[in-house]
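During the reporting period the student researcher (J.K.) took over the structure-prediction task from the postdoctoral fellow and processed the backlog of single-chain submissions. One of the processed entries is reproduced below for the supervisory committee.
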Amino acid sequence: MVGLAVLAVLVAAGAPFMGDMVVNSRLRESGNLLYTEAMMAQSEAIKRNTVVRLTAPAADTVRVHDMTDAASPVLLRERTLPVGATLPTTTSFTFGPEGRPEPFGTAVSVDVGLAGGTCSDDLRCPGLRIDAGGAVRLCSNKLVSCP
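J.K. obtained the following structure tokens:
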């Protein structure tokens, strides 16, 4: 009985941290999904020798389009973020045929957010950064390590 009582106290003490762990896991998964889609868009732009655009038409959706014909873009892939993670619906960036963001010389910054909450040291929201030369990186916590 004493062992069960000790176990119950430990579980009760650790329960609040489990919620943060689940949210952080979803945020990390969302950041990795965004990173993967950005890398896919960049490689498709190079492979197809054309313009490819990544957009977030809804806060929980990421789409990659072939923009060879801007009047009728071709959807290459659409992915949904895990529950609770969001992107700004203004998210839209384009890779040119050489794999750099367009227009030439621009850098891209997209931060994953938390629906109904704010990012903090405990809830670490990742950030995607693409420099003007085309290097893509994912920062684990946009508040601390994402210049």
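The committee noted the following: The longest helix spans residues 2-48.
J.K. will present the remaining backlog at the next meeting.
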